[in-house]
């Protein structure tokens, strides 16, 4: 009976599966990894100095990660690969969350952690885009023969992620500036209140009466 194949939707599920596999196998080449795109067990990992290539031999989806891993840190490598593959979905989720936060602010449903939540979203988008940009730049540096259409597609994606990263950085800077101005205004209001209290005290006719 053929064993049913399945993909992993998140790192937690994958980590548990890999830990079980590592108990049985000590060598990386004996562990079959699922491709999140075509769901076949055909993912290969090649580490060359500080660049790691993760590739599916069935659908040829490829990501390159510029990061130094300790030996064959399979869980982290595959986890980073999943993050890159699911980058668009994650960005969409974060953008949706930002829209929700803006609506809450518009209808005066502002929460104390709204600023930190928006900043975190923009920061995550920036990090995701930076990682995707690095991966695409490494792929485009490849001297091997690559289909021209595929390379053109990588270039389009590269420009897209660069643009999204820049937008996220600009929004992050704007949010920080707004927050600083808000804190300054609040501080100024508090100072004026304190000054008014002092003036009121000295204006009281009975202030010096003992």
Give the arrangement of secondary structure elements:
Layout: H1 11-24, E1 43-48, E2 51-56, E3 62-66, H2 74-85, H3 87-106, H4 114-140, H5 148-203
Antiparallel strand pairs: 1-2, 2-3
Helix pairs in contact: 1-2, 3-4, 4-5
Would you mind describing this structure in some detail?
With about 210 residues, the chain is mainly alpha-helical. The protein folds into 2 domains: about 10-85, N-terminal domain of TfIIb (Single Sheet); about 85-180, Methane Monooxygenase Hydroxylase, Chain G, domain 1. The chain is about 60% helix and about 10% strand. It has 5 helices and 3 strands; from the N terminus they run H-E-E-E-H-H-H-H. The chain has a 3-stranded antiparallel beta sheet. Strand 2 and strand 3 (about 60-65) form a beta hairpin. The longest helix has about 55 residues, at about 150-205. It is globular, with a radius of gyration of 26 Å. Residues about 1-10 have low confidence and may be disordered.
Which short descriptors sum up this protein?
single chain; 210 residues; mainly alpha; N-terminal domain of TfIIb; Methane Monooxygenase Hydroxylase, Chain G, domain 1; 2 domains; 3-stranded antiparallel β-sheet; 5 helices; 3 strands; 8% strand; globular
